[in-house]
Amino acid sequence: MNKWVNIAVAIAVSAFLAINMYLLFSNKSVIPKAVYVDQYERMTSSDVNEKLAKEGFIAPMETYTVYIGNEEIVDTWLVKEGDAVTVGDDIASLQTERADGQRSVWEAEREALLDQQYTLSSTISELESDRADAKSDSSSKVNKQDNVNEGKDDKTIKVGLNVDVQVDVAQDGSFAQAIGAAEQELATVERRLIVIDAQLSQDSANPSIVSPVNGVIANVTRHGENLAVDIYSSQQVIVTYAKNDEWQKIGQGDRVLAQGDGIEKGTEGTVLSVSAVPANDDKWLQAYKAMDSTAVKNPLAYNEIRIALDPNIQQAPFGTNVNAIVIVNEAQDAISLKEDWLLNNFEGVATVPVIDKTGRAKPTKIQTPFSWKTRAVVSNGLKLGDIVVYEPNLAHYTYTPQLLLPLPTDVPGKADWKAFGWKNYVKYMTVK
């Protein structure tokens, strides 16, 4: 009799426990319960900077090229590579009997350059107007070659100017590339105008080639049909290149920290320009490719970045390698949290569980403009002192459960042990 009673009691108790366990812990349970969470973080503020490290080189702000007809015009070269020049310094003296012919060429070239300047300015204005109107399919084409008649016999002087800006744009990015290409060409024209005006302003009694700017002689082409002198302006910049998706991150006005030989560590600069067109494959780009080991499949995926330095710092030799840190995003006194704690993260909007006044995990929507080193910067949705928890299983609950958190612990480090002294630790551990 007792045997069957014991069996019945055991079955009843087991069934009671099983039913209660099911009601309490099953997925369909409606009984509120507390959840133990061992990962949480109280929100504090700090400065967060997203940085992009780039190799760069000291380069001139502008390069001016003075063209001379041929060797027969030049009487004597007065400069060599590396010489410093100022505005108006003589670069080469000309043959007196040929100076008038050279002056006619300069005057003809100036007229053509002014025409080209007007055409490019009009093209840029039209493109900017089209982009403002947001037309999905716009085009602008300018094709002009200038040959100017000059002299008693109306002899045609071929100046060699060519404007060819053809744009077929379907979106804002294409507009930006087209405008960038036209602006780049316009800057070249304006530099050539400065050179020509400097030559025409000199005294015709003492014909010579003069420097249009303060700078350094970079190259002298002394022989051949087309002689030329390249002059680096005295103002220096850092030239680097954005690859692939880096172009989307770097913006004009971004702060830059630079260091290199001859440049004080931590020297600040500013992104001066971000080109929207592929960079020319010149010596600067070739040097950058030699320094940067990252493989790039697309040979056109390089856009020139120019960085202006503080003009008061000591100048370094052209071509000096510089390490530049571009701060592409920065937030002062910002709240941040671990990026992998974000739920439903999409286009800068996410959700995180935040403990409310009742001790429950309340889903809270936040905005995260950027992330840096596994932490997401929060611009809206959280405030100082909020406690964010991380527990993936919270998403399975049909209600907002209360939370149990572990007591905070502070384990002393090695420096604390040394500062406090091991004898004091023994004293407090053995005191009764």
UniProtKB/TrEMBL annotation:
List, as start-end ranges, the regions of compositional bias called Basic and acidic residues: 128-153
Q: Where in the cell is it found?
A: Cell envelope
Q: Which InterPro entries match?
A: UPF0194_transport
User: Which spans are transmembrane here?
Assistant: 7-25
Gene Ontology CC, one term: cell envelope
* Keyword Transferase tagged: no
Positions of the UniProt region annotated as Disordered: 126-153
Annotated Gene3D superfamilies:
2.40.420.20
Record keywords, A-Z: Coiled coil, Membrane, Transmembrane, Transmembrane helix
Q: What name does UniProt use for this protein?
A: Efflux system component YknX
> What species does this protein belong to?
Filibacter tadaridae
